[in-house]
């Protein structure tokens, strides 16, 4: 499966990518919202792991643009924002799942497996 990891924390993004590649997935790492939006419009992905706090275009903007294009790719929001209102906003904007940092990689992998079924 091709997974786009959109996260401005480079160390975290690379750690997630390393783990997913070790599990047999292809992983594209992006650190900027505008870059991610262009990438998803051009290249696409089978699943997106998306942070909300991104430079130049926030994660909700990336998500809304993705859904406005009619792209139904599964999206897991991965963010430090833990308030109920943030979770509701993310899910109402088109996310399929919402995981709060800090998180366990095993749980992220389980959520990826669930969305890929």
Report on the structure:
- Helix 2 packs parallel to helix 3.
- The protein is of the alpha/beta class and 117 residues long.
- The protein starts with a strand and ends with a helix.
- The model has no long low-confidence stretch (mean pLDDT 97).
Could you name the ranges where pLDDT drops below 50 across 5 or more consecutive residues? Answer: none
Class per helix and strand makeup: alpha/beta
Strand order of the largest sheet: 2-1-3-4-5
Rg estimate, integer Å? 13 Å
Number of helices: 5
Query: What is the general shape?
Result: globular
End-to-end span in angstroms? 12 Å
How large a portion of the residues is in β-strands, by DSSP E? 15-25%
- The pLDDT mean sits at 97
- Helix/strand order: EHEHEHEHEH
Q: Helix coverage percent of residues?
A: 40-55%
Number of strands: 5
The profile of the biggest β sheet is: 5 strands, parallel
Question: What does this entry show, briefly?
Answer:
By secondary structure, this protein is an alpha/beta fold.
Descriptive keywords:
single chain; 117 residues; alpha/beta; five-stranded parallel beta sheet; 46% helix; globular
């Amino acid at each position: 499966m091709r997974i786009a990891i959109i996260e401005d924390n480079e160390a975290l993004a690379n750690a997630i990518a390393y783990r997913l590649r070790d599990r047999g997935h292809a992983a594209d790492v992006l650190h900027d919202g505008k870059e991610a939006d262009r990438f998803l419009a051009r290249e696409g992905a089978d699943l997106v792991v998306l942070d909300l706090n991104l430079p130049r275009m926030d994660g909700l903007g990336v998500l809304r643009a993705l859904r406005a294009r009619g792209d139904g790719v599964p999206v897991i929001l991965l963010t430090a924002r833990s308030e109920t209102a943030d979770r509701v906003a993310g899910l109402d904007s088109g996310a399929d799942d919402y995981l709060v940092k800090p998180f366990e990689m095993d749980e992220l992998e389980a959520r990826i497996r669930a969305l890929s079924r």
